[in-house]
Amino acid sequence: MACLFAARIFRAGYPVLLWDTWSDGITAIRDHGVRLEEDGRFTSYPIEVLESNRTDQDFSEGLIFTKSYQTSDSVNSAKGLFSDKGTLLTLQNGLTARDIISNILGPERVLGGITTCAAQSPGPGVVKFQGGNMIRLGGHPDVELYATIFQNAGFDALVETDLQKLTWEKAILNAAINPIGAATGLTNGALRENPNLFEEMLEMILEGCKVGNALGLNINPQEMSARLVQVLEETASNRCSMLQDIENGRPTEIEDINGAILEYAKKLQISVPKMTTITAIIRARKSRGK
Predict the structure, then answer these.
(1) pLDDT per residue over 161-189, tens digit each?
(2) Are 134 and 173 in contact (CB under 8 A)?
(3) Domains of the chain by range and CATH?
(4) Can you tell me the distance from the alpha carbon of 65 to that of 289, in angstroms, rounded to the nearest whole number?
(5) Cα–Cα distance between 207 and 225 in angstroms, integer?
(6) Cα–Cα distance for residue pair 126/24, rounded to 1 Å
(7) Which one is catalytic: 67, 85, 165, 170?
(8) Which residues touch 283 (CB under 8 Å, ≥6 apart)?
């Protein structure tokens, strides 16, 4: 996702710098640029990449695309890149990242939002766009600047007022799609076409809405079910990030997505049997190192 956004924003004429710790990715981007595949065509973008927080520049805007469980380490390592009032926007999955960043930088320097963009990395420095183009951003004094950058980069970016509701809606969608995709190995399009799996996802959507609405978020289950269809169809060729993590032997974001929702359900004494079962399955796969 970082490479996708970097390539599109660079293409729109904005200065971009990537910060990472993956040595293979750093080497590949320095040698060949970020190679973006869209509609079957590859384009290379010569984007500068750093492997430390030492630079002569102080940045006023930044995006973070690490896994949710990497948020604290990443922000603490990279915060030296920012000016004293520099802001950081998170479009990460789950319910935990924004609070973690706020505790490090201060809430006034953090923006939040969601996106349906999907991408896969066939190799270091290479990204394949897999569909989805929507970005929704929560209110902040600097949010219009970010929205303008995204719009000029070709994204469908809008500003909305209720960030907590936005974040929960995205988390509920991820909680339904990602663990089912990870457990079955199917693309999003294949999940949509399988009536039994699709019904399971719909039931998890309803469970997530029940928890969110108990918190006073006023999430519409019918609208969320329609958005599930939309996301699965727009990103039909995508293999969800949780499946990619399992296939590559990486930790998953199950705790920051499903686990966080289950914690709220427990506190509110709400039964969520479908989400409880699939979360246990993914946790078991992780515990076996698979």
Answers:
(1) 898 999 999 999 999 999 999 999 999 99
(2) no
(3) 2-161 (3.40.50.720), 164-287 (1.10.1040.10)
(4) 24
(5) 12
(6) 11
(7) 170
(8) 254
